[in-house]
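Why does residue order matter? Because the sequence determines the fold. Keep that principle in mind as you read this record.
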Amino acid sequence: MPRNVYGPDHEAFRSVAHEFVERSLKPRAEQFIAARSIDREVWIEAGKHGLLGLEVPEVFGGSEARDFRFNAILTEELSKFNAAASSSFGIHADCVAPYLVEMGTDEQKERWLPGFCSGEIITAIAMTEPSGGSDLAALKSTAVWDGDDWILNGSKTFITNGYQADLVIVAARTSPDKGAKGITLFGVESGMPGFERGRKLDKVGQLESDTSELFFTDVRVPGANVIGEVDRGFIAMMERLPQERVGAAVSNTAHAAQILVETIAYAKERMAFGQPIGSFQHNKFVLAELQTKIEVTQAFVDDCIEAHAERRLGAVDAAKAKWWSAEVQNDVLDACVQLYGGYGFMNEYRVARAWRDARVTKIWAGSNEIMKELIGRDLGL
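Structure:
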């Protein structure tokens, strides 16, 4: 089925994103894996291509597209390369940007956004804690007011871009007696005394993205670094999670779709018993099912992209897109590995890396079980 969500301007931007992937990412793929991160010079290149400031006003160096479809185009092109690049750049340009643009003070915007757009300031968002997982309301990190500053203590884990981030949005409890209504967001900058990073975490997949633990010991955060209103951080996170989740759905679908294209090509070329393996009825039926799953999923995700671009995507529909696309992605990639046979289990083959990289998508951005809980509540259950 033809896709109708994008227009000529979006497709023109796709060419820019595609060129960036071809020139700046693909030739360095093995280098990123070895380093367990994407080099800073590549972030600078992304900034020069205008890929990091799609939601940022032009006065601060962004392109102020005001159209989530451009974000989705970038996510798709990055995901076709690999899921790790999509998550690293997506956290920065898709997840962090709305907090700084919509909630930042004029001084914060002037201080952070130009570097954010140029790639000189790499960002992360630190919600998840070792004991909390998807339960953001139960976070234990605290910030206590002291003079003109807040004293921040606690730790975070599984933080994408955490190892090299220059600016981290940190959620901490500022009013313990208020529960979820007592959480505040802070801009914690690299070099603040007491802010330390743990090791780059040894993950099963997505090796190209740096993911780390963060530790805060009596970090003195200036009051000027509070993002948004004090004690309103949980509400701010809930309001912006739909964008993270629809972005995840876009990535999940594009990632699986690209590997399926490559698997179909492989099935036409790989010979067994004197004929292409794709010509065997079982394999033909499997590929027919996978293609249908991808196209049906793409149709729903495209509706979500359009709805979010028009500011009408609800949290429940975003949850549906996130969990369903992650399930389909993992089902499709598992079947693709099977079609490759023994080669599908070799790291030198993209299908093996994609299969490994995809597993986390059923866990992050809120586990699939939490997504179903949200959907179930919406049903009145």
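The chain has eleven helices and ten strands.
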